[in-house]
Amino acid sequence: MSDLYNVSSSSHIRSKDTSSRIMLYVVIALLPAAAFGVWNFGLRALLLILVCIASCVASEWIFEKLIHKKSTINDFSAVVTGLLLALNLPYTLPVWQAVLGSVFAIVIVKMLFGGLGQNFMNPALGARCFLLISFAGTMTSFTYDGVTGATPLALLKNGESVDTMKMLLGTTGGTIGETCVIAILIGAVFLILMGVIDLTIPASYIISFGIFVLLFGGRGFDMTYLTAHLCGGGLMLGAFFMATDYVTSPITPMGKVVFGIVLGILTGLFRLFGANAEGVSFAIILGNLLVPIIEKFTIPRAFGQKKEVK
Amino acid sequence: MGLMTFKGGVHPHDGKEFSKDKPIRELLPKDELVFPVSQHIGAPASPVVAVGDTVLRGQKIAEAGGFVSAPVYSSVSGKVKAIQPRRGAVGDMVNSIIIENDGEMKEVEYSAVEDVTALSKEEIIGKVKEAGVVGMGGAGFPTHVKLSPKEPDKIEYIIANCAECEPYLTADYRRMLENPQELVEGMRIVLQLFDHAKGLFGIEDNKPDCIAKMQELTKNEPRMEVCPLKTKYPQGGERQLIYATTHREINSTMLPADAGCIVDNVETLISIYKAVKLGKPVMNRIFTVTGDAVAEPGNFDICLGMSYGEVLEAAGGFKVQPEKIISGGPMMGFSMFGLDIPTTKTSSSLLCLAKDDVAASETTACINCGRCVSACPEQIIPTRLAKMAGHGDMAGFEKWNGMECIECGSCSYICPAKIPLAQSIRTMKKQILAERRKK
User: Cβ–Cβ of A7/B336 closer than 8 Å?
Assistant: First the structure.
């Protein structure tokens, strides 16, 4: 019996999709926003992007080396984290702070909880919030065209008027990747077409946030105000690229809708009633923490099951 | 667009091109045939022949072991050489009757029926039972049990499972092209049992020639209808097929009859026709030998009891050395470590793959992407269930509807992290069922 054939449990064929390919798609989808950021803010933005990616990948590699685990940097997830983090930073941030943030994202938020798939919070956003708290000054100082000024959202908060056309095009102050709505949407459409994300979370997030702003914004049915809120800050980047992070969003179909609504309400609360102009990052990491509870209450009805009477 | 279907499912490469256009070839068996006494779900049959006995083709060699059981017939004439445990396709040892073929194919006399419509319902079911007809799509559930629901009047649909949604398999496809009349006659006989039922033929739209042929044959049959189905795996899953054709849903605690349906596969319906009209027991079936490692893939009319290896020889043997050989389709079939295994009533194919996807793919961490959820035709959450299975969390597994899994393998197929989800879930289901039986 020298030539025995392989035996395994069915199914015996596998699709071509792999986790690293999915991550690669996300990287590609982030490129328009990144490229626009570099064009908009200059080479300093490119430097930060490269630094964040390099330090994320390096810290994952070193950490796994130290604890004698097989290296997982080939799955590109650290690249995604680094790129996302960079897109969430002002281009003026000191390099050492960006490095610190990257190490925090990978080591504290991701690896200490078990690595890819185990983190309960989006690593890039966890790091951004860590940096916001630690270095409030450099993290909230936005320079545009050599002038330090308020972001459109901050202007909006102070009741001043904003140019929504500029916000759509992205020629305003802000973090590297959040300003250009068009670039973000190009990436989002790519992800949807490639089947990487679906619209459930972004749609329920953006719609519920929009309704919240209409109800509590104090401006009534003011379309310009609403558009400014939708295009301003990190909402679009957050809704399409961070709220949809597989690991830290619910897997149940109903849970995705609930998650989006929770994010919409939290973002609205933070933006309209909080001390800061921006609220997307905090809303999403808070939402991440609620995921286990959301899943628990949204276990789907299996095919053929009668509606459960509780 | 107007095609009938279900929610979820996957689109694996269909691989049917290997054997699709190969007409059915009859195969004559060589010297030794092996007949396991358990080729069906239910009690094993008990041998009614002894070592040294001479048997004819079509002679009963094992008697049904209970109501949910089926007799076994010899497919050749010859001498009983031994009765001993032999390895089956699933890997277990099954008591088997081994017959030395004398090569003469002397047959018993079958009692054909002139006019089937003159038969009573009990007579028809009796003939099906006596002929040892079981679900020949792979499940092996005794057909006479299926045809005896508690309330026959409430059966509204007899669904012929002509989907053949498993990649690579073409046995049913060839049957429909070459013997469609027998399929229609089989359906007519079953319809005779159920006065209020309509016969539906659910055929995937990757077989337009079969759809056309069946439509042509049934155009003057008011009680029969052809239902073109979207080509998607597992369209031929019993619950999925019922939903696609009738929009009725059943779950793991129900039988198709609870939704007024009875589902039978192509080969089964043809066996019913042969059993009732011709009086012939189940001795042969159509069998596909295929895969990229086979020299001349094809479809064969085999005598049950021949070994997989013998049928493979008829297909020219291997072109290249395969890494994996599978009894059945790639999604739900059983991989076998050798070829010296007998074919049975439920063997639909031998699939030989040059490359083993499973061995080639490295399992990585679950990233919670939810592809398994979208693919699951039962709308459950495979990755959560697999995790619970890993933790031995029976309560959680049942709460998250793990018992609804039909083990179609769509989740394992689609998983980008290459996690064998279906395997974990299947194992856990078995443990829970064993636990329930203890109580």
Answer: yes
Of A12, A251, A300, the CB nearest to B326: A12
* Chain A contact residues (CB < 8 Å to B): 1, 3-15, 17-19, 21-22, 72, 75, 77, 115-118, 246-247, 249, 251-253, 295, 299-305
Phi then psi for residue B228, to 5 deg, are -65, 135
pLDDT per residue over B64-121, tens digit each?
A: 989 999 999 999 999 999 999 999 988 889 999 999 999 999 999 999 999 999 999 9
Q: What is the pTM of this model?
A: 0.92
* Token couple for B56: 């004819």
Chain A residue with the nearest C-alpha to that of B365: A117
Contacts of B350 (CB under 8 A, 6+ apart): B287, B288, B289, B290, B291, B308, B311, B312, B325, B326, B327
Which ranges of chain A have pLDDT less than 50?
1-2, 309-310
The CATH number of domain A19-297, selected from 1.10.3430, 3.40.1350, 3.10.20, 3.30.70: 1.10.3430
Q: How far is CA B119 from the centre of its chain?
A: 28
Q: Touching check for B399 and chain A: CB below 8 Å?
A: yes
Q: Give the ipTM.
A: 0.90
Domains and CATH numbers, chain B: 112-278 (3.40.50.11540), 371-438 (no CATH)
Per residue in B236-291, pLDDT (tens digit) is 999 999 999 999 999 999 999 999 999 999 999 999 999 999 999 999 999 999 99
User: Roughly how many angstroms between the first and final C-alpha of chain A, as a whole number?
Assistant: 57
Instruction: Say whether A11 and B325 touch across the interface (CB within 8 A).
Output: no
Q: How many Å lie between the alpha carbon of A296 and the closest alpha carbon of chain B?
A: 9
Residue-range domain boundaries for chain A: 19-297
